[in-house]
Amino acid sequence: MRKLLLLTLLPLYLWADAHLFVFHRFNDTRHLSTNTSIATLRAEFEYLKKNNYEVVSLKRLQKALQSGEEISDKWVVLTIDDSFKSFYKNGLPLFKEYNYPFTLFVYVQGTVDHYGDFMTWDQIKETSKYGEIGFHSFGHPHLVSLSNPAIYQDTKKGLDIMQKELGYTPKYYAYPYGEYDDRVRAQLEPFSFDLIINQNAGAVDKDSAAHDLDRTALTGENNIKVKLRTRTMPTEWISPKAWPKNGKISTLKATLPKEIKRVEYYISGYGWKSATVNSGKLVVNIDKKLKMNRTRIFLKSGNRQSSIILVKGK
Ligand SMILES: [Zn+2]
User: Fold this and answer.
1) 3-class SS at 63?
2) CA of 141 to the centre of ligand 1 (A)
3) Quick one: what percent of the chain has pLDDT higher than 70?
4) Most buried by CB count within 10 Å: which residue of 20, 96, 127, 221?
5) Residue ranges of the domains in the chain?
6) Of residues 83, 97, 81, 84, the one with CA closest to residue 41
7) What is the pLDDT of residues 209-252, one digit of tens each?
8) How far apart are CA 256 and CA 263, in angstroms?
């Protein structure tokens, strides 16, 4: 009886996850790895519409996280990084047609220095009538390679320019390249962002940290249906938490929800493997040199997933 009751309640808990997605370029076939065709975007929007997903703004999500209210499993948040002209030209009209809110994360130097592919301030202002504007750094640096003062300076410089150009300071930050660690995150704290967003594929629930929200890339083919299946797996990463100094993972350690007995884990360059979890403790002896300077570690149990990125600094 008790077991049956638990099984009935379980899906309610498992499904209360919102999904954050990130796009970059639209109908720009010069850069296929970061491109989304308009045909694909339309198919994705149609999928969301037909299946009663509610596209909400980051502001709405932030309000829910702040108040601790339950997050709807039908919520989807759409974001665009880098403020490329191809969003303004090709993507924005479709967002307007579907009346979907979005957040555009601006790479400030691209606009300041008039790099060919980037929107002008006037285009960004026009865009802000339809969506929110976030901050994606001044110079799009590899933050993990920067000193603490350099991270502070890049952030301050970019925010000051946005305040001057737009008349306000954005409250949402998205890491360039999705690269960060605890040290990088700590350098952003003085700026009091409401939300800080990474690029670790996953989902968001009411207990997700406002300064470390998972976001999944949507590029290439229409695979939104598969990506919407991902559920949160609250994970406390114990080791490694940043790029290990000797470039070697000795032990993979994390604390997971107690009901998880087994996970699949993935380390870039080494593929998927399986491990048992004892009372929520995952401890695996790895003893391997990292092969990639950007290494991702994924943990998966059914549809539940969490991930971390380890980036080699200078
Ligand atoms: Zn970027």
Assistant:
1) helix
2) 9
3) 95
4) 20
5) 2-229, 236-311
6) 97
7) 999 999 999 988 889 999 999 999 999 999 999 999 999 999 99
8) 10
Q: Cis omega before residue 240 (within 30°)?
A: yes
Q: Name the residue among 18, 16, 26 with its Cα closest to residue 127.
A: 26
Q: Which residues pair with 104 in a beta bridge?
A: 80, 133
The per-residue pLDDT for 294 is 94
Give distance in angstroms: CA of 200 to centre of ligand 1: 14
Cα–Cα distance for residue pair 288/307, rounded to 1 Å? 18
**Domain at 236-311: CATH code:** 2.60.40.10
236-311 has the same fold as 2-229? no
Cβ-proximal residues to 41 (8 Å cutoff; 6+ apart), any chain? 23, 26, 91, 94
Ligand 1 centroid, distance to 105 Cα (angstroms): 8
How many whole angstroms from 29 Cα to the centroid of ligand 1? 17
pTM: 0.92
Coil, strand or helix at 186: helix
What amino acid occupies position 78? Answer: L
CATH class of 2-229: alpha beta
